[in-house]
Each structure stands twice: as C-alpha cells, then as structure tokens.
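Case study.
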Amino acid sequence: MRVFKTMTRVILLVLSASAAMAVDAPTLRLDRQKATLVDSVRLEVSIAGTRQGDAAPIITGLEPFTVSRGGTASRVQIVNGQMDATVTHTFFLQPKQTGTFTIGPAQVEIDGRSLSSNRVTLTVTAPSPTTGKRRDPVFIESELSADNIFTAEQVFFTLKLHHRVHIGDLRLGLPTIDHITFKQLGQPRDYQTKIGGVDYGVVEIRYVLTAARAGVYSVGPARMSMTVRRRKRRSSLDGLFDSPLFGNPFSSRDDRHLTVVTQPPALTVRPLPIKDQPADFSGVVGRFEMQSTLTPNRLPAGESATLTVRVSGRGNVNRLPDIELPDTPFARVYGDQPVLETQDDANGSGGSKTMKWALVPNKAGRFTLPQLRLSYFDPTTERYQTLQTALHTLTVLPGTSQSAAAAPAPPGAAAKAPQGGKQQIEQLGRDILPIHMSADNLTVPFRSLSTGWFFWPALLGPPAIYVILLGGIRLRRQTPERRAQARSKRAYKSLVRACRGNTTECTALLETFRVYLNDRLNLSIGTLTPDEAQTILLAHGVTAATAQKAGAIIQQLETAAYAGQATAPAETAEDLLALAGILEKELR
Amino acid sequence: MTRIACLLLIALLPGLLPAAAAADIKAAQEIFFEANRAYKNQQFRKAIDTYQTLIADGFANGHIFYNLGNAYYRSGDLGRAILFYERARLLIPRDEDLKFNLAHAAGQTLDAPGDDRGRPAGDFPGLDSVNLFEAFFVFALLNLGFFLVLGTRLFRKTEWSYYAVIFLTLLIGIGACALALKWYGWRTDNRAVVLSGELDVHAGPDATDTVLFKLHAGTIVRHEREEDAWALIHLSPDKRGWTAANRIERIRTFK
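After joint prediction, the assembly is written out as follows.
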C-alpha cells in the first residue's frame, strides 16, 4: 500500500512537473569544426524541455555527407519539483567532398510548433598523404597550428591517438619545456577515421600553447601510455572454468602495456617588435575590442553616473591592465573592482575585463570625459593596436545648493505616468537634512541615570529599601507575647527530640520534662516537685486525671533518682511522651 | 582671616557648584552656536573643529554627532560622515533627520553592506529604537514600581497589589532581558568605518601580504583586534583580512 502511494506521488510529481516544462529551440552541435574526407564527424541535435524522442529533426545542409543515425538519448531530471528533460539525437557524418559546409538549421515539430536550431560550419579537407598508408595498430601524432609565432601568442597543439585495437587506462605525459605553457581546451574528443582503408578510432586532445620567451623550441615528445586489450583465441575448455564471481583464471584476454610518443614539431618564437611599441603597452597579445558606456549621461549635480569599460577578445586576457580614470575636476570618481572573466573554447583562450567608475559631479555644466586607452599587439597583422573609449559627454544639471555629493536617485525615482488622475512626485534631487540648532541638544536625556553615581542606587536602591523595610517590620513584630508563643510552640518538639534521643537517665528525663513545662506554660520554675506540677497544670485547665498522671511520673523519676538508680525504666520516656501528647491537646 | 575665608567657601560651596555647571553649559552653548554659524557659512572645517571641541569638553551627545556627520559630509568626507551618523544613532536612534541622512550617506558608499548577523539587540522587537540609557531608565522605573508595590504589601495585602506584583514581575523579567541584550550589544559593538579612499585588505599584517580585496570610504566592517598598526577586520565570513588600523575607526569609542 505504501509503495503504491509513493508511486502515485512520483507519477503526480512527474505529471505536474512536465506540465510546467517549456520547450526550448533545438541546439545543433558538431564534435569539431575541421575534418578530413576519411574522418567521421559526430553531429548532435539537443532539444531541451521535452521527452518526445520520436519527433526526429529535419536537418538541412547534409547533402555533402553520408549520414548514419547514432540513436536517441533522453535525460529527465527533477529538482525541487522542476523537471529538466532533454532529448538528444545523434548522427555520424562521413564527408563526400572537401570544402566548407554550413549545416542546419535542424527543424523539429513539437506540440504543433515548429522549432529551428542554430547553424554550424564544418571544413572538410583532403586527408594528409600519410593517412593513406597503412600504419601500426596504435600510433600518436602531434601538430601545431602554426610553427612561427610571437611571444605570448596562442597556437594550438593537437594530439591525436589513432587505434584500431581496444585500448584503456590512457595516461598522457605532456612535454615539459621551459617558457612554454600548455592549457587544455575542452574535453578529449572521440571519433572514427579511415587510414589506408582501415577504420581507426581517434582520441583527440587540444591544447593552447603560449611561449613566454623568444627562441626555437622542439615541442615534444609527448607520451601516451595505455593498456592494449587483445582477445586470445578461445579454447574449447574455457567454459569449464568460467565463474560469475571471479571470472576465468584462464581468461581468453591478453592485455599488454604500451607507450607511444610523438615526433616533436619545431616551433619558432619571435620577440615582440620594439619598433612602434606604445609606451603604455602592458604585454597583451591577441585580438581585442573595447566597449564603453556612460549611464546616465544627463543628470543633476550630486547624483551618480556610471562609466563602464569592457575589453574583450582572444589572447592573454590575464595581462589586461586595470585602466585608470584620470582625476576629473568636475566630479568625484569612485573606481569599482575590475571583473576579469576568462573563457576557453574550441577557438582558443580569451575572455573579458570589465571596469566601472561611479562619477558624482559637483557642478553643473557639460563635460567631456577623458578617453581611456589600451594597447595590444595583434600577431595576425604583426602590429601594435591601440583601443580607446568613445568620447562621452556628461551633461550636469543644476542640483542642490550645496556642493557636496549626493546619492544616486533610487531606481524608479523618475517621474512616472499619472495614475488615477494623480501624478507621481518626481524626485528632482537628493541631499542631507540640516543640522540641529537648538541649545537643548547639548544634553543627553537619561544619561546621568545610567552612568556615574546614580547607576547602582537606581538599580539596587529599591530592592535594598524593600529588604530593610521587611527586616524592620519583622523585628518590630517580635513582642514578648510572640516570643512566648514561639517558645511554647517549640516546647513539645524539644521534648519529643529529647525522649527519642535515647535519654534514659532519670535526672535528664526529669530535667527535660521541667524544661517542657517551663517552655509550654511560659514559666521559670527552678525545681519541679510532683505537687507543684499538679497545681500548675490544674491552674492551666488540664484535667485532674492528667495532672495526677504527671505528678505520678515526676514522683516515679524523683524516687528513682534519689534511690540511686542512674537509669529509668525503658517505658518511662514513652510514658512521658504520651503524657506530653495529652497535655498538648488539653492545653490547646 | 584665612579661617574665615575657608568657612565662607564651605558655606557657599553648595551654591557655587550649580553656578559653575551653569557657566559650563553657557560656554558650551556659545561654542555650539559658533559651530552652527560656521556650518551655515559653509566653513565646514571650522564647524568640524568646533564640534570636536564640544565633544572633548564632555558634551558628546547624539545631536552633536549628527551635526558633525553633516559637517563631514559637506566637506566631502563620506567615511567620517557615516562614522558620526552611526555614533549619533547609538544615542538618538529614533531621530528622523538622522535616519534620513544616514540612509542618504550610506547610499553613496561603493561596497555592498556586510553580514550583520549576531547582533542580539536586533532580535528583540523595538530595542533598536531606544538607546542604552533609555532602556536603563525604563528598567529603573519598572524596578522602582515593582518594589513599591511589594513594599505596600508589607503593610496591607490587597487584591490589586497581588495582581500588580504578578504583572510587574512579568514586566521586570522582560525588561531585564531587554536591558541585558542592549547592554551586551553595546559592549560588544565592534563595528568600524572605513574612513577614506580605497582601502587594501591584506592576508596578513604586512603591506607585502597578498591583497585580498579592497574597501571604500563609508563601508562598515567588524573590527576584531589590532597588532602593531594593523587591524584584523571582517565584512562577512568570507571577507576577512588585515588592514592599516589608522584607515578605519571604531564607532563605539565613548562610554
């Protein structure tokens, strides 16, 4: 029952999530942009936001290729009730002719809507002369996209491992060359090619290589180690030893370790030219562009405008300097922390650097911002280029009376369209409120209460006064009558304690009873005789029988004491206690 | 003769003391008006110096700090303006002018505000709108009322005083918690303000240490400790480092 409920919940979740999905336009993707006639190129069409794998895409521009389907894969993911589904159709293209071909768009019809993808370009070249020769089962090739470059210029270094046997446990060892750095571009790619009429699998890894110093370098050798897996010829006894847990100790596989190395290509690195080198050149090499914006370019004095400069392109973006905005006499300038973003893709390494300044003008007028410059070396044209920002003009309207800066108006502060016949109040300026002028402002209310001598009296005074009052009242209430009453209340307890405390001496018991009577009746008798005791008890309203009994016990104790008996009979203390109990009732 | 003079002085002393205090206040009022005049005449530097004189003379209160914040703001010193507005906020937290000016000045800082968690006073409703002295005053009143009612019960145990004692016990409990939180917040207030320009925050107390991030005038940070001329600060758990101690100033420096 519980399983059924869980399944129902999951189904409902999937249904509700799928109802909320939106189908995106398909994406067309090739595993590379360049291939030879003998290569096999992988083409993928991904459609996000659907699980309908049966809607096959129609792709234009596939005429120059032999196309074979590679299957359809769908992926569904539910995170926090949001479903993310993608269907990917895979195709393998075998070029029929050389040239540059545009593939796409791919069109898919989903829920009656026709969706189009992007286009991609594939350049097909003739295979190299070595490709036609029959080669080893496993071999590696390396190539550089250029063999003569400038320092800090990017060049692509490609490693291709060809294999026509099963391999695994690939390990790559790049060459370590002083002043040369390698940076991998993306993940290794897997595809098929044909060499000498034989099908080879290719593992291709691309790096962007830069040299920090001029010279002639040998880029290599790069090493690739792997395990080659070959199957032995099976014997008829193999089946006898197969175990589902431990396999076959007499396996028909023959694995062996193999290392292949590249022929190192030569690379000549030239220094950057000294001639025409700008004074502000900071070592940036590549191709870059610069965009700048000033928003707003018209504002009242005291408000803030933002100048944004973005330099982007391909090359060593990490060498892009932090451009400094010179001091401006008409505004205060607050520079923001520059943001550097790097990006690596199939076309190389690049990125952008964004710098921002807040300008707070302090006077009205029309001002031109100084142009910012950046120099770089373009290895394509072999020239230094200088980028500069556009000419920005800032129009500052008269603001508040004071020359101080003020905060930018909050978003939405500008006048809005009238609503319901009323007009929104327009925020024309921002400034601080004036100083406090009143002489009363020299005092701090309540401060003296919590500091200095007043603190502790204010905190502890009331409880202290209360305690003193309480003590005084209690003391005053201690009159002789109350004290006598208290003494009387304590008498019986004292007697009980004494009698139960194993007091057996006659004199001690006699003394205890005398003290009891003194305390209970507020007397001060020195020696208690049996007659006196009877008289006193009768005078306090005790019955004659009880008084007589008291007299008898005292008589008994006195007799014992005078007769020289040190200890009284054991029941005497109990009799005394019983008598005291009766007396307590009768005296009440 | 000397004895007579001494006797006269002793006899007149109780009368002279208030007169001396009154003279101090009168002199302070003169300085206050002079500073205000300087401010109105846009002599902000002079106004700052004069307000500082008042503070040095023991007249440090929220309104003087507020005026000083204004003077710094007008002279273009955003960091110190925010510093004195924040100091004023400790003393006159309900002042609407102060709230407006502080919000205005804070809007001009370049850095996003830091993490303000761990402020106990902020968790107690309404406690931010009273200063420590007012909180103490309210507690002292409750304290007095509670023991007054308890005292009356020593002489006459009435029904109203019984319920009043229960009610005041609850109130005094809440008041004690609020006062304790306020006091704790006051004592542990380690906020500091970046005074001017751009401030490098390093990985260690040395100018050659890696610069972790930069702060700008008016940003409020938490000051942890100082070593030599360097202060360890943090803006949030992941923004922590060392900076020159003279480039920041603690908000709570007075008692």
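Observations recorded in class. Residues 2-40 of chain B form the longest helix (39 residues). Residues 122-187 of chain B form one domain. We will return to this complex in the next lecture.
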